[in-house]
Design a protein that fits this description.
With about 575 residues, the protein is α+β, with helices and mostly antiparallel strands. It is built from 20 helices and 18 strands. The chain has three domains: about 150 residues, Periplasmic binding protein-like II (D-Maltodextrin-Binding Protein, domain 2); about 150 residues, Dipeptide-binding Protein, domain 1, CATH 3.90.76.10; about 230 residues, Dipeptide-binding Protein, Domain 3 (Dipeptide-binding Protein, domain 3, Roll), CATH 3.10.105.10. Helix 16 links the parallel strand 15 and strand 16. Helix 13 runs antiparallel to helix 15 and helix 19 packs antiparallel against helix 20.
């Protein structure tokens, strides 16, 4: 199905692939001659969970990313095959210069062809505006601001060239250039029609860290920016990308249509990043696995991701499906884990957390629930990255070791009811933990059941609680209203910057450190990693950080994932 070539990259929740899903595609002349249900040029993609919104700075949900990136592109984009940056809105990679005052400048020039969906040119003032939105302290975008923008100090427009902008950085980090390259760019005339932020310099905004002390215009803009239209309505969600939002039918689908006379089509002949073949894309919101399987069988979707392992195998055995679909299981820069709320009184002791890790059995989960499509891990670094710690081994399933650690942490069955207990903060507490899973995920439910059975053998009572993805990631994890929860974390092919997920300044709800773990040493390592540009000097810092997380077990690291793509 050649119409899928463009969408294969975007449907994989942010393009987190280690190999291209398009590699190995059967030549058209060798494909079976079959009659497809739909003959139009629309691609229908199964979306396993519904996004909360489509505003790039107001969401951290992976499900939103493949949609908003087609609307709001960045200066440069990452090639999904070789992981190199390629120019998109910008004509080339930035010109980087060291300045006399120890600052570094990054100068971008925008393509003269670049246009917003309404035909207006994309200008340097739009880029400047987008950085102002990001750095506005009244905009709840802490998680995004912490992802490489901390050293940004100011920006300069070129009075002689309306398409050139220079961004000034005080102390570049390992993610600075990537962060500048990858910011999604907004049209100023649509998002700030009254020009509330135009007269306020980026430097002034950056220096205003307290929203309460901010210029009233910043607060006024932030209130407008957070309203529903700028996250959900087609009239407002218009960018410079190939597609625009057409309709969002909540709980059913999100449809996008190709921008008429899109400017990038003229560049697509010899620059693959501009290829946009479908006339429209429909993201069908199908959380339930069985419903998604039926959608594949009925040809209601052209692309499906995250089908459970058993169903994936069964679909491969059906002639009707094989004639119409290709199957791929590329590596994915993401890992599955069980989140532990380190602030919960029952879970503050690292010996308790390590015991919980020894209860888990990643190999069993992979064999029984995922057809072996994954690799047990030691921590948050993907095994394919060169600084994955070579001397640490994944925590083994060992109930005797778990019992030993629990006893050392003070847990015992004092009343003989089969559940461990101890006095915590003056009260007798049993080791009974709520474990949240998303009911639409067969993998999560299967892991929870096996974990619950193993935990009972060592006196730990697990109560499984079902929550939909929106509530889990939008409420429970950010608020800390949980004890254990199944989840997965994504990454990118760049060297890891752990600030957003692991620094104590990013404790949820404002930030993304949802397990609420960190100490002075991990914070210092994270900050040093950020500013150590030499890989050789950064390597021992990476290794030490992994050693600490391995010892502390702030979450139960399960396995690196593979995509199951149809």
């Amino acid at each position: 199905m050649n119409k899928l070539v463009h969408v294969l990259g975007i449907c994989l929740l942010g393009g987190l692939l280690l190999v291209s899903a398009c590699q190995g595609e059967t030549p058209e002349e060798e494909q079976p001659k079959v009659e497809f249900k739909y003959q139009d040029n629309t691609v229908r993609v199964r979306l396993p969970a519904e996004p909360d919104r489509l505003n790039p700075l107001l969401t951290t949900r992976a499900e939103a990313r493949p949609i908003y990136e087609e609307i709001f592109p960045s200066m440069l984009v990452i090639n999904p095959v070789n992981f190199k940056w390629e120019p998109f809105l910008a004509m080339s990679a930035p010109l980087v210069e060291e300045l006399a005052d120890n600052q570094v400048s990054y100068t971008y020039e925008l393509r003269p062809e670049a246009r917003w969906a309404d035909g207006r040119p994309v200008l340097a003032t739009d880029v400047l505006f987008s950085f102002k939105v990001l750095m506005n302290p009244a905009v709840p975008a802490t998680a995004h601001r912490s992802a490489g923008y901390g050293s940004l100090v100011d920006a300069q427009l070129d009075p002689d060239n309306p398409r050139r902008i220079t961004l000034l950085v005080a102390a570049p980090s390992i993610r600075t250039e990537a962060a500048l390259n990858g910011l999604n760019i907004f049209p100023e005339h649509l998002f700030d029609p009254e020009g509330l932020m135009r007269a306020i310099s980026l430097k002034e905004i950056i220096q205003t860290t307290d929203p309460g002390q901010a210029d009233p215009r910043l607060q006024q803009f932030a209130e407008l920016f957070q309203t529903s239209p700028y996250s959900r309505q087609p009239a407002y969600l218009q960018g410079a990308g190939a597609y625009q939002l057409k309709k969002w039918e909540e709980g059913q689908y999100i449809s996008m249509s190709k921008v008429p006379n899109w400017w990038g089509d003229k560049l697509a002949t010899d620059q693959a990043q501009f290829e946009a073949f479908p006339d429209s894309i429909v993201f069908a919101i199908i959380p339930d696995n069985a419903t998604a399987v039926n959608a594949v069988k009925s040809e209601l979707v052209d692309v499906a991701t995250d089908i459970d392992a058993q169903s994936y195998q069964e679909l491969q055995e059906l002639d009707f499906v094989r004639e119409r679909y290709q199957f791929a299981t590329p590596n994915r820069l993401a890992f599955a884990y069980i989140a532990i709320n380190n602030a919960d009184p029952l879970l503050r002791d690292k010996r308790t957390r390590r015991a919980l890790a020894h209860i888990a059995d990643s190999k069993l989960y992979l064999e029984q629930l995922a057809n072996g499509l994954g690799t047990p891990i030691i921590g948050p670094v993907h095994p394919d990255k060169p600084y994955y710690h070579p001397e640490l081994q994944p925590i083994q399933h060992d109930l005797e070791k778990a019992q030993e650690l629990l006893a050392a942490a003070g847990w015992q069955d004092s009343n003989g009811n089969g559940i461990l207990d101890q006095k915590i903060d003056g009260q007798l507490r049993e080791l009974e933990l709520e474990y949240i899973t998303v009911p639409s995920s067969e993998l999560q439910k299967g892991i929870a059941k096996l974990y619950q059975e193993a935990a009972a053998k060592v006196g730990v009572k697990i109560k499984e609680v079902y929550q939909d993805a929106r509530k889990l990631f939008g409420e429970s994890l950010p608020s800390g209203n949980y004890q254990l929860a199944s989840a997965a974390a994504g990454a990118d092919p760049l060297d890891d910057d752990f600030f957003q997920l692991w620094h104590t300044s990013n404790f949820a709800p404002a930030g993304s450190n949802r397990v609420r773990f960190g100490n002075a040493e991990t914070d210092a390592l994270i900050e040093k990693i950020q500013t150590t540009l030499s890989y050789e000097e950064r390597l021992p810092l990476y290794l030490r950080f992994q050693e600490i997380l391995y010892e502390e077990q702030p979450m139960i690291f399960l396995f690196a994932l593979k995509h199951r793509l149809i």
